[in-house]
Amino acid sequence: MSPERSGAGRGAGRDAGIGAAPAFAALGDETRLALVARLCAAGPLSTARLAEGAAISRQAIAKHLDVLASAGLVRRGDAGPGRERRWEIEPRRLDEARRALEQISRRWDEALERLRASVER
Fold it and tell me: Which of 29, 42, 74, 119 would disulfide-bridge 68, Cβ 3.0–4.6 Å?
């Protein structure tokens, strides 16, 4: 069986992750991944709070948040204390990315199982 037919070739998982590709691209940056992790752990936070203790400027944090927002991973929520708008996670997009990874993982598990079965014959 060819790799394309078995799902183990270059296109394997392509349809699984195509909708989640912008999320994966945005999360591929260490700073953005850390921002998402912090928002997941702490809940909605302002740009100023997210910049506290960061090695980069508040303006750089804001640019990273804009990229995450463009990918649908975060959104500006209601204004918090001091009237600064707070950023919050968009759980639906994270869930879509998680489902895409699970689908890709299942396909690889199936391909590896087929390979194991073929080798054991």
Answer: 74
- R_g over Cα of the chain: 19
Helix, strand or coil, per DSSP, at residue 54: coil
Element (H, E) at 20: none
Contact 23, 38 (CB under 8 A): no
Domains along the chain with CATH numbers: 18-120 (1.10.10.10)
Place of tokens 């996670």: 89
For every residue of 58-85, DSSP letters joined together read HHHHHHHHHHHHHTTSEEEEEE-GGG-E
Phi, psi angle pair for 10, to nearest 5°: -60, -35
Which of 77, 89, 91, 87 minimizes the C-alpha distance to 48?
A: 87
pLDDT at position 83 is 74
